Amino acid sequence: MEGRGLRKTYGDRVVLDDVSLTVHAGDVVCLIGSSGSGKSTLLRCLDLLEDVDDGVIEMEGREITDPRVDPRDVRRDIGMVFQAYNLFPHLSVLANCTLAPRKVHGMSARDAERRATDLLHRFGLGDHVHKHPDRLSGGQQQRVALVRALCTEPKLLLLDEITAALDPELVGEVLDIVRGLAGTGTTMVIATHEMGFAREVASRVCFLDGGRIVEHGPPAQVLVEPREERTREFLRRVLPG
Ligand SMILES: Nc1ncnc2c1ncn2[C@@H]1O[C@H](COP(=O)(O)OP(=O)(O)O)[C@@H](O)[C@H]1O
Ligand SMILES: [Mg+2]
Q1: pTM of the predicted model, to two decimals?
Q2: Crossing angle between the packed helical segments 93-103 and 138-150, to the nearest 10 degrees
Q3: What is the dihedral of CA 28, 33, 37, 40, to 10 degrees?
Q4: Beta-bridge partners for 207
Q5: For residue 175, which of 184, 189, 163 has the smallest C-alpha distance?
Q6: Ligand 2 centroid to 161 CA: how many Å?
Q7: Residue to mutate, 9, 40, 80, 212, ligand 1, most ligand atoms under 8 Å from C-beta
Q8: Residue nearest ligand 1's atom 5 by CA
């Protein structure tokens, strides 16, 4: 996926300002930056949940910001997980995970259940397949949300601060899954406040400030030896010590 010159405004407020971003297959791009810097807006634009005011987004060489493109077609290939788990409360874990594969991707109930059950076991949720979300911990619910996103075999996974609402002791089990996905070549764009995690899994880190990408590069540059004063200042604020 590639975004070029993306601009997004709300009223007279510029929220994304000339943002360009290339995500190759297998890349893990981490978006960092203060609250309000535009990370969620960028992810929502990439998923076509928001229209950009200017700029172009291409996916596999096709311009998906072309008004003739149906956003639902594009979203079929993209999985997105948010800070709040957003599971359907009235459906079992399994039903949460098979809904989109069946309704959106036309998979048979049997195939959808086989794939979901396999992923739920792989991610340590095998005992919870038939439970409702409210019986699970926040960490377990967020792991289900990840499995649900993976059940549609997305080409790109967008993760928006998926551990931000979790109790600290539950963060690790969710990050472990994302780490595993990074290790198996899943293409991801991840907005995160977890700097240690970003340093470990990111192939590239983008630091956003006021809707602009101020600095981007490998984590060893951006997080360890940043070139920009604004990046240094941000890291001083968020890193312990
Ligand atoms: N729907 C909206 N209407 C108006 N302003 C918005 C809307 N969504 C986000 N914003 C503003 O856009 C800016 C960037 O927000 P956001 O992308 O959520 O940042 P981040 O995810 O980095 O915290 C903020 O100033 C926010 O208030
Ligand atoms: Mg956000």
Answers
A1: 0.96
A2: 20
A3: 40
A4: 32, 215
A5: 163
A6: 7
A7: 40
A8: 10
Residues in the ligand 1 pocket, defined by CB under 6 Å? 10, 15, 33, 35-41
pLDDT in tens, the chain (241 residues): 999 999 999 999 999 999 999 999 999 999 999 999 999 999 999 999 999 999 999 999 999 999 999 999 999 999 999 998 789 999 999 999 999 999 999 999 999 999 999 999 999 999 999 999 999 999 999 999 999 999 999 999 999 999 999 999 999 999 999 999 999 999 999 999 999 999 999 999 999 999 999 999 999 999 999 999 999 999 999 987 6
Q: What count of other Cβ atoms lies within 10 Å of the Cβ of residue 202? A: 25
Residue 63: name the closest of 22, 153, 24, 55 by CA: 55
> The tokens 């059950």 sit on which residue?
117
Residue partners of 40: CB distance under 8 A and separation at least 6:
160, 161, 191
Closest ligand 1 atom to Cα of 11: 4
Identify the structural domains of the chain with CATH numbers, from first to last. Answer: 26-53+66-77+155-241 (3.40.50.300), 89-154 (no CATH)
To test the ligand 1 pocket, which listed residue (41, 47, 206) has its Cβ within 8 A of the most ligand atoms? 41
